[in-house]
Amino acid sequence: MTSTPLVTLDDVRAAAARIKGVAHRTPVLRSRTLDARVGAEVFLKCENFQRIGAFKFRGAYNAVARLTPGQLAKGIASFSSGNHAQAIALAARERGSSAVILMPEDTPLSKREAAEGYGAEIVTYDRYSGDRTAIGRQLAAERDLTLIPPYDHPDVIAGQGTAALELIEEVGTLDGLVSPVGGGGLIAGSATAAKGLNAAIRVIGVEPEAGDDTKRSLEAGHRVSVPVPRTIADGQAIETPGELTFPINQRLVDEVVLVSDDEIRAAMRFAFERLKIVIEPSGATALAALLAGRLPQVPPRVGVLISGGNINTGRFAELCG
Asked: What is the 3-state secondary structure (H, E, C) of 199-252?
C-alpha cells in the first residue's frame, strides 16, 4: 500500500489558480553565453522579479488565502531569515490580516525593514543559540495567532511549486531542474510539479558547502543536523531539513550538489554583468552550480530557479566588488 503524497500536482495547480493575479508570473531569461559555457539550453526562472523580491510570496499567499475569516482576524505568526517574513507580511496585508515575525538578530537590515514596511511586527532572537521553531510556536500560542512556517506547511510547499509549473508551461519539456535548497519547500513543491508533469525529469538541489544538511540527510536516509551554517547564502543557513519537506525530497530529488561562497559570488557577478539582473546569494546557488561545473552531467534542456534578489547595494558591492 502506498501512502497519499502530502502535496500533489493537483495541489500545485490549485495554488496557481489561487495566486493568479496576485503573485507575478515571473520572466524566464536566456543567455547564449551561459548556454555555450555549460553546453546546454538553460532557462532561468527569475523569482527575483516576484513580489517581495523572492519566490516566497507564492507559498505565503497560498497559505494565507486558505485561512478562515476568524484566523485572519486574529493574525498570523511566522519565523524567517528574511524573505518569508516579507512574504507573510505582504500576504497578511493583502488579506486584511496582521503578522508577527520572529527574525534572527543578524538578518540583513534591508530584509527586516522591508517586512516592517509591509506592516509586520518583528520579534528577534539569536539564531546561534535559540530554536526558532520552538520560539515561534510559543509566540503564536501566547498571542493566539495562526503559525505559517517558512517551508513545513503543505500550502506553502504547493505554492512554491507554482514557480516550476509556470516555467514548464512556458518553455515546454525539460530534462532537468536545478533549485536552491534551504528548508526544502521550493524544491519539494517544484519537484512535485516537475515530476508530476514528466517523471523522467532530473531534479537537482543545490546547497552552500557550509549548510549541507539536506545532502547529508539524503545520504543517511534520515534527517540529520549540521552546526548553524555560516555562509553568505543566509536564506539557506538551515541546520536540519524540514520535517514535511524532507520525505518529499527523499522521494523526488535525484541529487544535491554543493557550492562554495566564492562560487556563489561568481554567479552573482555573472548574473549582473551578463544578464543585467541582481540576485542575492541564496538566489544564486543554482546558477553557481552550473557555472562551477558542480553537476556531473548537465541535462540538455535545464531549468534553473533563481530564487530571489533581496540584497541592498552596499552588501552587493561588498560581495561582488
From this structure: CCCEEEEEEEHHHCHHHHHHHHCCCCCCCCCCCCCHHHCCCCCCCCHHHHHHHH
Check residue 1 and give its pLDDT.
Answer: 40
* Max intra-chain CA distance, the chain: 56
Nearest to 250 by CA among 227, 226, 216: 216
Compute the residue count for the chain.
321
- Note if 307 is an active site residue: yes
Catalytic site residue 35? no
DSSP 3-state of 133 = helix
9 in Cβ contact with 192 (< 8 Å)? yes
- Per DSSP, the three-state class of 53 is helix
The total of other beta-carbon atoms located within 10 Å of residue 118's CB is 19
Is 113 catalytic? The answer is: no
- Has 211 been annotated as catalytic? yes
Please identify which of the residues 45, 53, 56, 263 carries the catalytic annotation: 56
Please say if 111 is a catalytic residue: no
Is residue 29 helix, strand or coil? strand
What are the pLDDT digits (tens) for 224-269? 999 888 899 988 888 899 999 999 999 999 999 999 999 999 999 9
DSSP result, 147-204: E--SSSSHHHHHHHTHHHHHHHHHH---SEEEEE-SSSHHHHHHHHHHHHH-TT-EEE
pLDDT, position 111: 76
Helix (H) or strand (E) holding 288: helix 281-291
The answer to whether 314 is a known catalytic residue is no
**CA atoms within a 13 Å half-sphere pointing along the CA-CB vector of 115:** 31
> What cell numbers appear for 41 in the block?
539550453
Catalytic residue among 47, 207, 212, 234: 207
Element (H, E) at 164: helix 162-171
